[in-house]
Amino acid sequence: MDTLNALDGRVAVVTGASSGIGAATARRLAARGAAVALLARRADRLEALAAELGDRALPVAADATDPDALDAAAATVAGRLGPADLVVANAGVMLPAPFEEGRRDEWRRMVDLNVMGVLDTLRAFLPGVLAAADADRPADLVVVSSLAARTTFTGYAVYCATKAAVTHLAAGLRAELGARGVRVTNVEPGLIDTELADHIGHDGEREALAAWRETIGPLVADDVAAAIADVAARPAHVHLGDLLIQPTRQA
Hints:
alpha/beta
């Protein structure tokens, strides 16, 4: 018997919605009936996705590393769609390189987006999620971490550290908010074919990742998006806390 529910009446926020897992998740949530606020920096891509999804989607250009922009986005979403009761903190960046090269600008970008961006996203939209929980309605915080949170890869020390922080944050928030009715789900994708690789500035690491993808065969963004949509569609009393999603040949 199918225990999944439609998402009609729910208001979702997805960061990093201009591509990859974020765009795929927005499509999945809208298809289930949710109103979806699309957050990212690239306004043109958000507008195109919103046009595809129709009146269920609201494009909101915002930089997840800017807390004031996130606060303004939360106000916009609440005013147009209503307070969000489903938040998917997905925006992130992966910039591997040998640690000895000391690429501090890249370290800072990863810390600012992968850690502080997640913190500020959850902070900005938490009031609506708590209000939903207080009203005994489904209330979800979903963070997109990585397999890198639980293992190590040469050249990925800083990236792995940022994702480990996200995974541990989810565990802490689960302990803090679960008793209040908020579900906190940590999603850890393994090797996946998205635009993350396009931002890698180190030639050797970029080439190594391409070879790894060729050998293993990666996930696609919709594999992860489908799991996120299923998490949100579970009955309110069912909580899936940690999801590790890998290509079969990577396991």
